[in-house]
Design brief:
Immunoglobulin-like, five-stranded mixed beta sheet, about 250 residues, elongated
Length: about 250
């Protein structure tokens, strides 16, 4: 059966539906799919790609971001750098968001670093636009505790160019080093941690002098995997420091 299209009459209602459908399709085609852009991270007005700060200080961080239509919010989160061989001293949790409806914003975040912390962290910055598209940037952040003990460490076998120590299963890992502090040392320990930062073995070092050197700590691990060897020093004022390296047991 043949249909003569020229004889079909479109009612006003049908025409309205067709018009709305066509407009919706056009809006969909023109929908914004361009993500926002984090242009710059600045500390006290100076652009940075890495952050180094001392404990007990205040950090004024400015995020410059833009979008072709409108930004919705910018979030700054501090996370532990899990690739760092040195565990953090103390805990500093920071997660803060700021909203904005403009296409360009310079949002300021104030970070007050605790007195008790020393850590290698990552500052993660995420910008979100009104359509849910995102841009993110991660920059390294080192928090220095100048009052904590200083530690130097070395291993046999020695660490490689990537800062990792490789040993065979059952092979002894020999550790030596020195710790020092102007307030005197309260304790010194050498530890082997598993991949989840749980201690497997600890060798306490008797404090007989300051600085305190040692060369008699050894570990062996029969199970292949990823570990962390850690030297911990605590001074007489309670300040704590760590030295660490990743250990790969082949």
């Amino acid at each position: 059966m043949m249909i003569n299209l020229s004889k079909i009459r479109l009612t006003p209602f049908v025409l309205a539906v067709i018009t709305l459908f066509a407009a919706a399709c056009q809006d969909r085609e023109q929908a914004d799919i361009t993500p926002p852009e984090i242009e710059e991270i600045a500390i006290d007005g100076i652009a940075v790609t890495a952050i180094q700060v001392e404990q007990g200080s205040t950090l004024n961080l400015t995020v410059h971001a833009r979008d072709n239509e409108a930004l919705e919010k910018v979030t700054v989160t501090l996370m532990e750098n899990t690739n760092s061989p040195t565990p953090p001293t103390g805990i500093y949790a920071f997660n803060q968001s700021q909203t904005t409806g403009s296409d360009h914003a310079a949002l300021q975040f104030e970070l007050t670093i605790p007195e008790s912390i020393a850590a290698q962290m990552i500052a993660k910055i995420v910008a979100v636009d009104a359509n849910g598209y995102t841009d993110q940037l991660e920059i390294p952040m080192i928090i220095i505790n100048s009052q904590a003990p200083t530690i130097a460490g070395s291993s046999n076998p020695a660490e490689d160019a990537n800062g990792e120590i490789h040993i065979n299963a059952g092979q002894n890992l020999l550790m030596s080093g020195e710790a020092n502090d102007a307030d005197g040392l309260q304790s010194l320990s050498v530890m082997l941690w598993d991949a989840n930062d749980q201690p497997l073995a600890t060798t306490p070092i008797a404090i007989t002098a300051t600085p305190m050197a040692f060369s008699d700590a050894s570990f062996d691990q029969a199970v292949s995997g990823r570990y962390r060897v850690v030297i911990e020093a605590v001074d007489n004022s309670g300040h704590r420091s760590y030295w660490g390296r990743i250990v790969i047991v082949d």
